[in-house]
Design goal:
The strands form two sheets. A four-stranded mixed β-sheet has the order 1-7-5-6. Strands 3-2-4 form a three-stranded antiparallel β-sheet, with no helix packed on it. It has helices at 3-10, 38-43, 80-94, 120-129; strands at 29-35, 45-51, 56-57, 63-67, 100-110, 113-116, 133-141. It has 157 residues and is α+β, with helices and mostly antiparallel strands. It is globular. The chain has one domain. The model has no long low-confidence stretch (mean pLDDT 92).
């Protein structure tokens, strides 16, 4: 997948503050991979945060980004819409007889780390439902720079 194809496929659905115009630079590339690893799914970072003093946080304040496997730490403070969407997907996925396919745009964080750019509700729900998955990962490779995505400030080396 080219960067242009990535932009065409995901720009209208990704809600994080990605500087799409920056992706045209030659320093960016996109890879596609498919795997069935629930361990990989659980290790992926979300754009959800635990605040400095616990509870739900966000990228603008001190805190820590949560991995898919850690997302439930702040569940008691989730907005109602997040709780409802995760629960709905979890119920649906728990009834699946086949592996659940998840198409996820991600950003490479180095050392194998990935940040989910869209699909966090589905990813968390699939992990919580303890189902087999087929991950279709479309991964942007580029600098870890908060000017590209503010969330990257929490992942800088």
């Amino acid at each position: 997948m080219t960067v242009t194809q990535f932009v065409d496929a995901f720009q209208n659905s990704v809600r994080v503050q990605l500087a799409w115009e920056r992706l045209a630079s030659p320093e960016f590339s996109v890879t596609h991979s498919v795997c069935g690893s629930t361990d990989l799914l659980g290790s992926m970072f979300t754009v959800w945060y635990e605040g400095q003093h616990g509870g739900n946080g966000d990228w603008r304040r001190p805190g820590r980004p949560l991995r898919v496997s850690q997302a439930g730490i702040t569940e008691r403070d989730w907005p109602a819409e997040r709780r409802q969407r995760v629960s709905s997907f979890e119920r649906m996925f728990s009834q699946a007889r086949e592996p659940v396919p998840l198409v996820l745009p991600t950003y490479a964080l180095g050392k194998g780390g990935l940040l989910i750019l869209d699909g966090t509700h589905r990813a968390v729900a699939a992990h919580r439902a303890l189902v087999q998955v087929w991950l279709h990962l479309h991964t942007v490779h580029g600098p870890i720079d908060e000017d590209i995505l503010p969330d990257l400030r929490h992942h800088a080396p």
